């Protein structure tokens, strides 16, 4: 019997859909992977909310200053991408295998 993992209730629709999609595509079921995926989704939600506010207010104030949420949006986008990369989810899935994809040494970036 397959264990269905549902997205946490506090995630909004875009992040909830992403969470479910990643579990389905990559077969994430371990507690560490789920915690990292949740952290990535929370960062994505913060970045999205910052972007929505910036879009509503404008990127620049009347005095020409950059919106105060621009840095928060950037930082949360970076956190999202970094977490996804650290989980190895930045590599396209294949239909022939189940679980997280294994990158060849030539594909992995050296940091």
Question: How would you summarize the topology of this molecule?
Answer:
Blueprint: H1 13-26, H2 31-57, H3 70-86
Low-confidence stretches: none
For the termini, the CA-CA separation is: 40 Å
Class inferred from helices and paired strands: mainly alpha
Strand content: under 5%
- Could you report the average pLDDT, rounded to the nearest whole number? 86
Largest β-sheet summary? none
How does this model look, in words?
- It is built from 3 helices and no strands.
- It has a domain at 13-86.
- With 111 residues, it is an all-alpha fold.
- The termini are far apart.
- It is elongated.
Please summarize what this structure is.
By secondary structure, the chain is an all-alpha fold. The protein is 52% helix and 0% strand. The model has no long low-confidence stretch (mean pLDDT 86).
What labels would you give this structure?
single chain, 111 residues, 3 helices
């Amino acid at each position: 019997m397959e264990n269905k993992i549902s997205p946490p209730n506090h995630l909004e629709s875009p992040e909830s859909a992403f969470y479910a999609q990643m579990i389905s595509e990559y077969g994430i079921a371990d507690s560490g992977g789920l915690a990292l995926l949740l952290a990535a989704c929370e960062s994505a939600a913060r970045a999205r909310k910052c972007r929505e506010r910036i879009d509503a207010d404008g990127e620049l104030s009347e005095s020409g200053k950059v919106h105060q949420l621009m840095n928060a949006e950037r930082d949360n986008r970076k956190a999202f991408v970094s977490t996804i990369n650290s989980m190895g989810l930045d590599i396209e899935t294949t239909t022939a295998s189940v679980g997280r994809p294994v990158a060849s040494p030539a594909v992995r970036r050296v940091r």
